[in-house]
Design goal:
641 residues, alpha+beta, Penicillin binding protein transpeptidase fold, Beta-lactamase, 2 domains, five-stranded mixed sheet, 22 helices, elongated
């Protein structure tokens, strides 16, 4: 949380009291005379250093810590809160409040790093005196004598160079910090900024990395390990040398026992306690890479890379982890089934969108992410073939001039196209004569689609596509009604989702909500559906597309035993085959093809190959969903011509 490190409010007294009592108890055990000398020495040294501060006019103004925002790791979650990925630059950090850190860890850290923390004013004269003597004898800075406060200002403001002048600057800044901030505020900043090894900064991130739990849940044994890491994180890391980790843990526990902060029994129990070591979290790979990479691309475009990698964003996606995994497994199995049938297609892509929200529920960009990271669901423009035709027929129905039962002549036609002529052909080369638009759609006749496109105007068809969220370039060519211009599976799944909702549209998204680490909302994609299509025209189109899955249609292999509508797509030379279909709760696009545009083979169609994949996925996806029916066109007024 951005402001959590500099809150003026102290920790609860009940949390702070034991630490103060431990420190006082330890000092009293040494005798009142030592306490008096210590306090007098502290005042003298502090006064001297404040005087020397005149020489440090260029030291940073520690008041900037009031508004200091440490870099934080951003996290991406599924719709139910499962972490999918973490994003950070150099610093992998999650900031937490002091009262969200285990008392065990606070005591362990102070015991080994600064047992007089609650007694001094930023510097510890005894420690400094001892360090000065050692350094004078060695002729260089070999011992620090640093308090927690001095370590904090060193990490935030000063270089790592071991010199007398830097140590003096460190002491001056520490005194300044403690004149402005409470002890609890200083300790909170320290615990959130310290480096704990393996690119983990701050107690929370380190606890999650080393023990797979929150910092507030650390027990005494784990806390002693964590505290022992501060001096040399990688040297004492349990990921590297477990024996050295335990030796360092024993030292911390013994120090706590010597101070009277834990009993001998507690110390022995902690030494014997089993440590369930986790694994480094800084560079873990994403749980759902097709999803998280799409999220990252969107957030970088909207907020910039620095904000994403350092701003501590909390990103809730629209997908459920288990549902996405099911989709990925379905695609992988479908690809294997295609091979078993003798079809050697490089790739299969699938996109599923909830028509009620236009939230992306699943997005599979290929059969194996490890082998190819290219996301065909959103990055590949492929010709949709006949699955584009519903946009043409909707335009016709919405014009008020056509109904599903209007007639059109399926016969040869020729159009002038620049200096040449274009003559559309049906699949198979035959013609059917006079047919209804319903029959033309169900049987996927090409010539009627081109004729209707010319009748209603290609520009009007493109306008409908734009309304439905298709933003890819669409040239107003005569062959556009046959899907001759490439679009993405995401675009067509989103457009069909608006058909499924009978004309209500929201912008498809894989991001539900983004906040900062303090809970402030940065992006809210709560659906705001708008009625963008004519209800009668949409219901009429759906009633026709239901016939595609029924007897006489091109995709009986997509039938799932409940009301569903959809359309096959097969492009010239069988380079791309599709099935895009929907029920009221889900719109799904399935694409099959080769990345090098190699033809799949003569006779390969969307109905024969893509439709069965769609059916298999839908049966799994809808097994807990109730059967719902589409609205009848009779419930809506027909638009006027």
């Amino acid at each position: 949380m951005a402001t959590g490190t500099v809150r003026q409010k102290s920790t609860k007294k009940s949390d702070r009291k034991p630490l103060v009592e431990f420190a006082l108890g330890m000092t009293k055990a040494a005798g009142g005379t030592i306490l008096g000398i210590t306090m007098l020495s502290s005042s003298l040294v502090a006064g001297g250093l404040v005087g020397l501060a005149i020489s440090f006019r260029n030291l940073p103004d520690v008041r900037v810590l009031r508004n200091f925002v440490p870099t934080e790791t951003s996290y991406i979650y599924d719709i139910k809160g499962k972490i999918l990925d973490s994003l950070h630059g150099e610093y992998n950090r999650e900031v937490v409040k002091l009262d969200e850190i285990s008392p065990n860890l606070k005591r362990a850290v102070l015991a080994i790093e600064d047992s007089h923390f609650y007694l001094h004013d930023g510097i510890n004269p005894n420690s400094i005196g001892r360090a000065l003597l050692v350094n004078w004898r060695r002729g260089s800075v070999v011992e620090g004598g640093s308090t927690v406060t001095m370590q904090l200002v060193k990490n935030l403001f000063l270089s790592r160079q071991r010199t007398f002048s830097r140590k003096l600057a460190e002491a001056v800044l520490a005194i300044r910090v403690e004149q402005i901030f409470t002890k609890d505020q200083v300790l909170e900043m320290y615990l959130n900024n310290i480096y704990w090894g393996h690119n983990s900064y701050g107690a929370e991130t380190a606890a999650q990395s080393y023990f797979g739990k929150s910092a507030k849940d650390l027990n005494l044994a784990e806390s002693a390990v964590m505290a022992g890491l501060i001096q040399a994180p990688e040297d004492y890391s349990p990921f590297i040398d477990y024996k050295k980790t335990k030796q360092r843990q024993y030292l911390v526990l013994q120090r706590m026992q010597d101070l009277g902060w834990i009993t001998a029994k507690e110390s022995e129990e902690a030494k014997k306690a089993q440590l369930l070591i986790g694994q480094p979290t800084a560079w873990k790979s994403s749980e759902l890479p097709y999803i998280t990479e799409a999220v990252v691309a969107e957030l970088q475009k909207r907020f910039g890379e620095d904000a994403l990698l350092k701003g501590g964003m909390r990103v809730q996606t629209t997908v459920d982890y288990n549902f996405q995994k099911m989709a990925e497994e379905n695609v992988a199995q479908a690809h294997q089934n295609l091979k078993n049938r003798g079809l050697y297609a490089d790739q299969v892509a699938l996109v599923a969108i909830d028509p009620r929200t236009h939230y992306v529920k699943a997005m599979v960009g290929g059969v194996n992410y490890k082998e190819s990271q290219f996301n065909r669901a959103i990055q590949s423009l492929r010709q949709p073939g006949s699955s584009f035709k519903p946009f043409v027929y909707y335009t016709a129905f919405a014009s008020g001039k056509y109904t599903p039962y209007s007639s059109i002549n399926d016969s040869p036609v020729r159009y002038r196209d620049g200096s040449a002529y274009y003559e559309p052909q049906n699949y198979g080369g035959s013609f059917s004569g006079s047919v209804s638009l319903r029959t033309a759609i169900i049987q996927s006749l090409n010539v009627p689609a081109v004729k209707i496109g010319q009748a209603v105007g290609i520009d009007n068809v493109i306008e409908v596509c734009r309304t439905l969220g298709i933003s890819s370039p669409l040239d107003p060519v005569i062959s556009l009604p046959l899907g001759s211009i490439g679009i993405t599976p995401m675009e067509i799944a989103g457009a069909y989702a608006t058909f499924a909702s009978n004309g209500w549209h929201s912008k498809p998204t894989v991001i539900a909500r983004v906040t900062d680490s303090s809970g402030n909302v940065l992006l809210d994609n709560t659906p705001k559906p708008r009625l963008v299509l004519d209800p009668w025209a949409t219901a009429s189109l759906t009633s026709v597309l239901k016939g595609v899955l029924e007897g006489g249609g091109t995709a009986p292999g997509a039938a799932i035993g409940r009301p569903a509508a959809g359309k096959t797509g097969t492009t010239t030379s069988e380079r791309d085959v599709w099935f895009v279909g929907y029920v009221p709760q889900l719109s799904v696009a399935v694409w099959i093809g080769n990345d090098n545009y190699r033809p799949l083979g003569k006779g390969v169609t969307g109905g024969g190959y893509a439709a069965p994949i769609w059916r298999g996925f839908m049966r799994e996806a809808l097994k807990n969903e109730p059967v719902k029916h589409f609205p009848s066109p009779s419930k809506f007024p027909r638009p006027k011509a």
